[in-house]
Amino acid sequence: MPRGRYSLHDPHDRTPLGEEHFHCAPGPSGWRYVSRTTTPSGDHAGSVDLTLDDLGRPIRLELHAASWQVRGAALDGVTWVRTDPTGTHATEGNVRAHAFTGTSPAFLVATSRLLRLTPASPAGRVRLVAFTDPVLAPLTVDQSWALIRSEAHPTDNGPLTVDEYQVDALDTGERHTVHIAGDVVLAAPGVELEDLDTPPSAFA
Length: 204
Prior knowledge:
By secondary structure, the chain is mainly beta. Helix content is about 5%, strand content about 60%. It contains one helix and 15 strands; from the N terminus they run βββββββββαββββββ.
């Protein structure tokens, strides 16, 4: 069960946004990721609880940020309920999309699991519902993912396979690179892995 800490920053000007302390592990249903986020000053900012099934689909999502809450799952596309800070208003949403995304590195791992690309396979197109900070507002985005290379690197615990993905935002044409090892993001725009207590888990 990997445990660690990501630092989060603005991918454009590198303004620090805080940290995400996480643990994750494969399980009987697929994969689960749990984290808490903090501000640059160390105050509590929110949390992420994401469970995927064996095919990489989100069977349970719970997000908290700035007293807003989202609960969602893959149902007729993806369905979610967003609750305001007072708890008096809740709005339901549904989009014909494949999965969710957001600022947490968990969503990068989740999308890679959903697509299951190989270096020989063509790029995969995916429609995602992104929950944007600070109020978890939903936004539908289309992305193209391609696995550029998969390389094994020697470590004290044996070879570590690192996958390099090229991700294109189909609405803006913006392109970036994501490096993932097992169920841990090593580097991505706005994300840096700072600490990792145990090696990444290898998916079957």
